[in-house]
Amino acid sequence: MEDIIQKIEGHARYGPALRQALESGGTLVLNYHSHGPVGPEGYCVSICERRQGDSPRQLMGLEVGLEELVHIRGFGRSQDDCLPQCAALGDLLARHYQLDQPPEIFFQGKPYPTVN
Length: 116
Prior knowledge:
Elements (H helix, E strand, L loop, with lengths): L2 H8 L3 H10 L4 E6 L9 E9 L4 H4 L5 E12 L5 H15 L7 E4 L2 E2 L5
Parallel strand pairs: 1-4
Antiparallel strand pairs: 1-2, 2-3, 4-5
Helix pairs in contact: 1-2
């Protein structure tokens, strides 16, 4: 998992997007997700920035705006991998980028039920 940071920083779009979000004080979210039925590729994870929106659903706290900064395919094999894989990546991101706390963990675009 250590080489994920190097790959992100070396990517022409992902590296600058993540750095810009962090420099502007953005809050990171790891969104563990699939793109339909889970096939051999398994689950992906997106490193997203939490966005404050002005839609009625966002103002009422019923919906969270996420802007995808980084997309990583084949990150996990099953739903059970969500928490351990994302927690490990979150700790790695927090250490590397000197974050006050690891990113929040979401599953399929919604806060992971056992995390908070």
